[in-house]
Amino acid sequence: MVKRKRKKRKKGFARFALKVLLGISLLLFVFILSVRIGLWGKIPSKNELSTFHYNRASEVYTADSVLIGKYYLNDQQPIPFKNIPEHVRNALTAIEDERFYEHSGIDYQSLLRVAIKTILMQDRSSGGGSTLTQQLAKNLYPRKDRNQTHLVVDKVKEMIIAQRLESLFTKDEILTHYLNTVSFGGNTFGIESAALKFFNTTTSELTIEEGATLIGTLKATHSYNPRLFPQKSMERRNLVLQSMVNNGFLDAKEKDSLSAIPLKLNYREFEHDEGLAPYFREEVRKKLREWCTIQNKNGKNYNLYTSGLKVYTTLDSKMQQLAEETMAHHMTSLQEKFEKSYGKNAPWLRNKGLISKLVKRTEPYQKLKKLGWDDTRIMDSLRKKRTMTLGDWSGEKTVKASTMDSVQHYMKFLNTGSLSMDPRTGAVKTWIGGINYKHFKYDHIAQSKRQVGSTFKPIVYTTALESGIPPCTYFPAQEVAYENLKGWSPSNSNNKDEAYLNYSMEMALSHSVNTVAVKVLEKTGIDKVIEQAQKMGVYSELPKQPSLALGTGELYVSELATIYTSFVNNGKGAEPFYIESIRDQNDSILVRFTPKKAKTSAFSKKTGEMMLEMMKSTIDQGTASRIRTTYKLKNDIAGKTGTTQNNKDAWFVAITPKLVHVSWVGLDNHEIGFKNTSLGQGANAALPLFALWYQKLNRDAAFNGITKARFPKTDPSVLRILDCEPIKRDGFFKRLFKNPNKKKVKKFRTKS
């Protein structure tokens, strides 16, 4: 009887258990079915999965095929299966999915193991049991919610998507898609972008230990980041290598030798603020965005950040690198001298009115002003200190500072802009828009117009020669007060007694004599000079004032560069040209750009030769003679220095047979200039940016084609025309009737 009851109870329990099991199975079936039909959110169809496309970053290359930047939403550069080395594929499957080539998208054996360990043994380190195919599903359709209910739903969705992927793609295709979409931390997606970022190489060139390092990070991209945690990353790498041994992909001896290799990164950030030529890359980005907009209006479908465009530029990576090194070296030294020259009375320390004025231009001030705050309340708020990062030439420091402190810190910095280009085509070789793109976004090449000082004088002298004024015409150096210009009296920067001296045009230009430049302008005519400037490439409006001779007109660096290319390009100015072609992801050319240069010469060959000889004198014995004396450059060079009123802007333009280089140095705040001319003149502040850079080019034989180039021989007849005494002293009777201590007064003749 008891046995019968026990038997009956067992049967009852078995029936109950069976019912529970069937009930759970039914519920599970209904749940999975509900997920499959989309009650928990849409699941992509096979058709959608078969037609998915990658978001590809667009790339920027230099003329020497160096990748210098990317434009992206996600830093992702998909590659084909053939570019993925076997050892990378083996490392991935060994550590992430041993039965990848055996299962059909879901590894039930692994799932059962995880379930037993997690549920019965409470082992949270057992993993998730996801296959590479399931992980690919998660890569393509990232989880949006982290709560437990949605986690189960997401897992089921990924299983369903995995099965569909397996029916659409081969195992090799799935593995390729996975490696092209998986995150390596930050905003870096795909093995190719990771290889470039951490090892500055392509996936196909990864060594076994490098590949194992990258695959090892996939378990936890932050914790095993080789740059942040090198020791943990190396331990994980060695675990990957051991997994490769366990799966027959490596022998133990090879693994031991590879495990002994220290972790060696060649890290490169493809961030907008970092890397080579950031100002240049930003200008290229703007032009590329404009091109995409035009193309899309014409029915195309190009996206700067996702279409994988390849932009090939004219920039020379090595020349740019050397230019940036030169800039950092020179500007660090100049900044130190600049601050020392002002001492404790510097305007960024004492000029409260100027500081307040600059604070009111800041974004924090403007935001609070829009909220209706009064000035007192705003200023009190902006004086409150908080943790912030401030940068200088020694690096970045995290400090306690206020917005007011930040303004005072950055307002003192000298800035710069320099551009070099091939005068024959206008092809840009180097582009430096400022001292630090992260802290100073303003590009002094593309955005800034400044007074150009004496670098404008060659236009005046070119016009004079074209007008028939002989180069050996002598002009008195004596200072003149022009009564019809409110007594305006331009003077020369030296302390030389010039009351009885008269200069030839070559002497006056090479030594940048202001008084003579104004007299040459007067004799030639302002309108003629402006017309000549426009022929040579000036498109900015110029002041119709006698001060034009001294460079009070404001021009872009690019305009100045175009002007000077005409002197070594048969009188035809070449505009800066920096995008050679735009190509698609397969390297097929979508558009090729051609240089823009003037169709007709702005002046005669004879005038061009005379001007070039005059500007050679500037280098050999004039205001830029330190090119020869201090920097010992023996190359063929012509050029012109420039310094503006109150030492606000320092300029230097160098002309060589194969390069024109323009450099500017000054402050973004026009209210502050150099303390003195000796520090702020073009020969001291701007010239070294060229001279130090050219020294580096001279030391590299790769640039011999540029540095050893020679100017064409000047026509002997031109040399004869220029062959005159540079200075003539007034005769006895003229000196007798001239009072050297009395300034001459006259009217400036406005009609030539």
TrEMBL record:
This is Transglycosylase domain-containing protein. It is found in: Cell membrane. Pathway: Cell wall biogenesis; peptidoglycan biosynthesis. It comes from Maribacter aquimaris. Keywords: Carboxypeptidase, Cell membrane, Cell shape, Cell wall biogenesis/degradation, Glycosyltransferase, Hydrolase, Membrane, Multifunctional enzyme, Peptidoglycan synthesis, Protease, Transferase. In the C-terminal section; belongs to the transpeptidase family. Residues 421-658 form the Penicillin-binding protein transpeptidase domain. InterPro entries: Beta-lactam/transpept-like, Glyco_trans_51, Glycosyltr_51/Transpeptidase, Lysozyme-like_dom_sf, PBP_transglycosylase, PCN-bd_Tpept. Its main location: membrane. Residues 73-244 form the Glycosyl transferase family domain. Transmembrane segments: none annotated. It catalyses: Preferential cleavage: (Ac)2-L-Lys-D-Ala-|-D-Ala. Also transpeptidation of peptidyl-alanyl moieties that are N-acyl substituents of D-alanine; [GlcNAc-(1->4)-Mur2Ac(oyl-L-Ala-gamma-D-Glu-L-Lys-D-Ala-D-Ala)](n)-di-trans,octa-cis-undecaprenyl diphosphate + beta-D-GlcNAc-(1->4)-Mur2Ac(oyl-L-Ala-gamma-D-Glu-L-Lys-D-Ala-D-Ala)-di-trans,octa-cis-undecaprenyl diphosphate = [GlcNAc-(1->4)-Mur2Ac(oyl-L-Ala-gamma-D-Glu-L-Lys-D-Ala-D-Ala)](n+1)-di-trans,octa-cis-undecaprenyl diphosphate + di-trans,octa-cis-undecaprenyl diphosphate + H(+). PANTHER family: BINDING PROTEIN TRANSPEPTIDASE, PUTATIVE-RELATED, PENICILLIN-BINDING PROTEIN 1B.
